[in-house]
Amino acid sequence: MICGTSQMDGAIVVVAADDGCMPQTRDQMDGAIVVVAADDGCMPQTREHLLICKQLKVDKIIGFVNKADLGDQDVLDLIQLEIRDLLDNFKFECAQNAPIIYGSALKAMEGDTSEYGLQSIRKLLSAMDSFFEPPRRDTEGPVMMPLEGAMNIKGRGTVVIGTLFRGTLKRSDHVEILGFDQKIPTTVTEIQMFGKSIPECKAGDHVGLSRCSERAFQNAKLATMLGC
């Protein structure tokens, strides 16, 4: 998922592999995209967000020069140098080899197929695939999943929603709903992701889990964690 600030021109956009919430630790981050407007250049918030990424040890940065259709090539080249200088000032190792993409978010949203329209977004996605390293996930440890919500669906039982932080979970696995000094044992009867039923989920997956215990539902509404 992609999340960031509302000031897109000169803001940092953090690319997270989980539920789109603003990551708080390095393990939740894959990289970042610094978005700079061609008519403004690097802004103060650009520096602030790069500082946050540096403190969290996010070292994979991609530059995206937005509104590229408003500037000529000399201006775009100058902004590219400005971005690289800023990365170098913060001592990012990727300062000289970070991909810099020119494009226009507005043109892409309008369906423009020119160089600065949809083509630029495809270039950005391609750069993300090649430049960002796959996140490190602990799929072997004990299952742990912070709970974001719970509901009771007739015919299915308890459904809890969250992102699996650690481990691998399969159908029919026995788990415990934890919180407020309680441990409620129950069984996973179904796992769904993006509206589809799957046989198992691993660390990093955002899923909904069905459980067969009515007692588990009553406690899941107040619980904070699922584990086994």
UniProtKB/TrEMBL annotation:
GO cellular component, one term: mitochondrion
Pfam families in alphabetical order: GTP_EFTU, GTP_EFTU_D2
PROSITE patterns in the cross-refs: G_TR_2
InterPro entries attached to this UniProt entry: EF-Tu_GTPase (IPR050055), EFTu-like_2 (IPR004161), P-loop_NTPase (IPR027417), T_Tr_GTP-bd_dom (IPR000795), Transl_B-barrel_sf (IPR009000)
Gene Ontology terms: biological process: mitochondrial translational elongation
Top-level division of the source organism's lineage: Eukaryota
Residue span(s) of domain Tr-type G: 1-136
Keywords assigned by UniProt, alphabetized: Elongation factor, Protein biosynthesis
GO molecular-function terms, A-Z: GTP binding; GTPase activity; translation elongation factor activity
Name of this protein: Translation elongation factor
Natural source organism: Ornithodoros moubata (Soft tick)
